[in-house]
C-alpha cells in the first residue's frame, strides 16, 4: 500500500518513499510512505494560507459537521484502525483499538467545542461604550506529532485546530505514517474545503525547519523529545511564532506504607510497562517507603516477570515490541547503565519471538538512588527503577527532584497525604491510586518544568493555543 501526502485537496506521490515496518514482524511491510521534498512542503504551506481565511469564516455548524463526521467514522472503524496502529507501532491490539476509539472521541468532543465557542460582552469604564471580547483563529498551524500515539496525538492536535477555524499542516513521525494517512483520507471526504488540512510526510530534520522558518506558518504544536523541543522553542522565539511543546517525563509513583499493596503493584505495573513503556506519562521511578518496600518489590518483580511479551496482534500478548531497532538499543543501553551504576536489574534482556521483531523483557531496577542516570534521564521504554525512602516527606522531595514535571502519582489510603501530594507534587497532572499514564480527552493535558512549554492541550483549554483574543470597543 502507498501512503501519499495530501496537499491542497490532492494526493501527492513522490519519487522517494520509506517502508512502514511492523515491529512485531519485520517481514511485514504495511506500505511505503511518500517523503515530501521541500517544494511539496512549500506547496502545503501555500495551500493552507489560501484556505485559512475561508475556514476562519466558516460557521460553527460547518465545523461541527466536519469533525463529527470524522469522529463517527473513526469510531465505526476502530477495530480496523486499531489493528493498523498495532501493526505499525507495536501496541497490543486491545491498546490499539482503545487508542483508535479515543481518537474518535476526541474529534467528537471538539465537534461540540466548535458550537461552544464563547465571548464576553462587558461594560466599559467609559459611559456609553460597549466592549466585546472574542477569539479568532491563529491562522496556519504546523502540527508535529510523535510515533508513540500515532492516531490519538494527531487527533488531539488536528481536531481543536480545525474546531477553532485554523488551517493545518500535519507532519507525523516517520515510523507511523499509516494512522496519519488514515486520518487524512477520512478528512478528504468530510466536506472540509481544499487546503484546510494538509498531510506532509518526510524527514523531521527537513520538514520541521521548513514549517518553523516559514513566515506563512503562524504557530507550531510539537510533541516529542526534549532536545528537539528546545530547538523548536528557540527558533520560534526568534520568529515570535506561537509555540506549544509537550516533551519528556521522568514520572514518579510514590508508594507509602499505608498503601493497598495489590492496588499499588497493579498501578505501577500498568504505568511502567503497558504500551511497552513508550509513553511520556509512564511511571519510570517508584519511590517507596521502607515499611512496604520489600513486599512491594517482591510482588512487582513477580508480576513483571510474568508479563507475556509477544506479537501485538496476539490476543495473549500483554506487552508488545519496542517500536524499532534504534529504540530497542537505547533501552538496552540504559539497562547496562543502571547495572553499571550499582542497580540490581531483573529482566531487561532482548527476547526472541515467533517472528523477528524488537522484543524486550520489561526491566525492573532495584537498589537505586535518585542521583543515578537511570533516575534522571528519560528511557522511553519498559524500564522502571525503585528508590527506597524513609517516609512521606522524603518521598515527596525525591519525587519532585527532577527536571521534568509531567505526571506524578501516589498510592496511599491516607486522605491527608493524598491531599498534600496533590497540592505539592511539581507536575501538571497528579494521580492518586491510579497509573501516571492514562488521561481523559475532555480535560487539560500538560506538565511543568522541562516537560511542557506553552498552553495546555486537550479539553476546552485547547482554545488558548489555537485562538487569539480580540477586544473590540464600540460607541453606538
Task: Describe it.
With 476 residues, this protein is of the alpha/beta class. 39% of the residues lie in helices and 24% in strands. The strands form seven sheets. It has a seven-stranded mixed sheet with strand order 15-18-19-14-13-21-22, with helices on both faces. Helix 13 (415-424) links the parallel strand 21 and strand 22 (429-432). Helix 1 (38-56) crosses helix 7 (204-213), helix 4 packs parallel to helix 5 and helix 9 (261-273) packs across helix 10. The longest helix is centred in the N-terminal third of the chain and has 23 residues, at 93-115. The radius of gyration is 23 Å and the shape is globular. The mean pLDDT is 97.
Q: Which descriptors apply to this entry?
A:
alpha/beta; Aldehyde Dehydrogenase, Chain A, domain 1; six-stranded mixed sheet; 24% strand; 14 helices; 2 domains; seven-stranded mixed sheet; Aldehyde Dehydrogenase, Chain A, domain 2; 476 residues; globular
User: Could you say how many structural domains there are in total?
Assistant: 2
Secondary structure tally: strands: 25
- The CATH top-level class label of the largest domain: Alpha Beta
Shape: globular
Low-confidence stretches: none
CATH architecture of the largest domain: 3-Layer(aba) Sandwich
CATH superfamily membership of the largest domain: Aldehyde Dehydrogenase, Chain A, domain 1
Q: In percent, how much strand structure appears in the residues?
A: 15-25%
Average pLDDT taken over every residue: 97
